[in-house]
Every structure is written in structure tokens, then in C-alpha cells.
Amino acid sequence: MSLLALQMNPNDPMFWVMVVIALSFIIMAMAMVAIAVFVSRAVKSMNRLERKLEPLIERATVISEQGRQIAVQGKLIAEQFNAVSGHLSTATMNLSESLAIIKDEVGELKEMVSETVHDARDKVELVSQTIDRTHDQVVTTTDFIQRKVIEPARELAAIMAGFRRGLEVLVAPMPKPINQTYGEDEMFIG
After folding, report:
1. What is the largest CA-CA distance in the chain?
2. Using CA atoms, how far apart are residues 48 and 44, in angstroms rounded to an integer?
3. Contact (CB, 8 A) for 110 and 64
4. How far apart are the first and last CA of the chain?
5. How big is the CA angle at 132 (ends 128 and 138), to the nearest 5 degrees?
6. How far is CA 105 from CA 32, 46, 61, 109, in A?
7. For residue 61, what are the contacts with CB-CB under 8 A and spacing of at least 6?
8. What value does the mean pLDDT take over residues 127-149?
9. What is the DSSP string of the chain?
10. Nearest to 54 by CA among 5, 7, 103, 127
11. Which whole-number Å values give the CA distances from 183 to 85, 175, 177, 178, 188, in the listed order?
């Protein structure tokens, strides 16, 4: 019987061990793909958010600059607009502070995405190492079972077959002597 036939026998426990190991590899591969898809989506979302926020920040900066210019012009035109220009300056300052906060938040989001990507890469590397280690253990276990179980079982089966053949020879009835077997046949010549 060939080694392939031994491995493909559903009644053999080794067959089921190999099936479980194969299913484990498939599940680990699916987990790695899911992690990669998640990271890719997160990066795309952050890139889209960044692209949408950049024009808003630029517009707000332009508006802030224009607000400052209006405040200066308002002070020169009339003193009665001092209160209004003061409020406008405060609003501009608040807007600038808000823009600074938004810039900081975008920077923190970029850093967080970068860390997430780095962590995801580390996890993928860990899964890859686990798969390699599992593969090495399966190969080692298979070699051990081959050496310690299958080869001795083959040798024992060969010894038992020889022992059985020897018993058959010892227990078989004695053959008839030659002269007794051919004595009657020699008389008949056809």
C-alpha cells in the first residue's frame, strides 16, 4: 500500500488530523485577508477625510485673513464700528483657534491611522510566523509518526506474514510420496 493511500483513508486518524490542520490554515488565511481589507478601508477613509478637510482649512484661512483686513478697515472708517470690529476680531481669533484644533485633530488622526497600519502589519507578521511554526510542527509530527508508528507497524506486519507462512508450512499435511502418487497414472497410457 502506498503512503498516499495511507493518508487518504478516512478511517485513519491521521487523515482527520490533516483535515483539521488544512481547515486551520484556511481560517488563518481568511483572517489575514479580513485584517488587510479592514486596514485598507481605514486608510482609504482617512485619505478621503483628509482630502475633504484640506479645502475647508484653506477656505477658513482665507476667510480669517479677510476678516482681519475687514477689522482693520472698520477701525479706520469709524469709531462707532469699534464694537463690531472687536466682535469680528474675536470671531476671527476663535475661527483661527478652531482651525488650529482641526489641524491638530487631523494630525492625530493621521498618526492614529499610521499606528493602526503598523499594528496591523505586526499582526499579519505574527500570523505568518504562527503559520510557519504550525507547518514546521506538522512536518515534525508527521515525520515522527512515520518513524515511530508506521514503519514499525510495517515491519511487524511483515514479521507476522512470515510467521503465518511458517506456521502454514509446519501445520500443512505431509505430501504423498512420489511412487504412490504416480503409481496408478503410469498404468494408464492413453
Report:
1. 156
2. 6
3. no
4. 49
5. 140
6. 30, 12, 16, 6
7. 99
8. 87
9. --HHHHHT-TTSHHHHHHHHHHHHHHHHHHHHHHHHHHHHHHHHHHHHHHHHHHHHHHHHHHHHHHHHHHHHHHHHH-GGGHHHHHHHHHHHHHHHHHHHHHHHHHHHHHHHHHHHHHHHHHHHHHHHHHHHHHHHHHHHHHHHHIIIIIHHHHHHHHHHHHHHHHHHHHHSPPPPPHHHHHHHHHH---
10. 103
11. 144, 15, 10, 8, 10
pLDDT tens, residue by residue, 6-36: 457 788 888 888 889 999 999 999 999 999 9
pTM: 0.34
User: pLDDT digit string (tens) for 69-113?
Assistant: 887 787 778 676 666 667 777 878 887 888 888 888 888 888 888
Grid cell 483657534 in the structure block, residue = 97
Which amino acid, one-letter code, is at 121?
Answer: R
Cα dihedral 65, 71, 74, 76 sign: negative
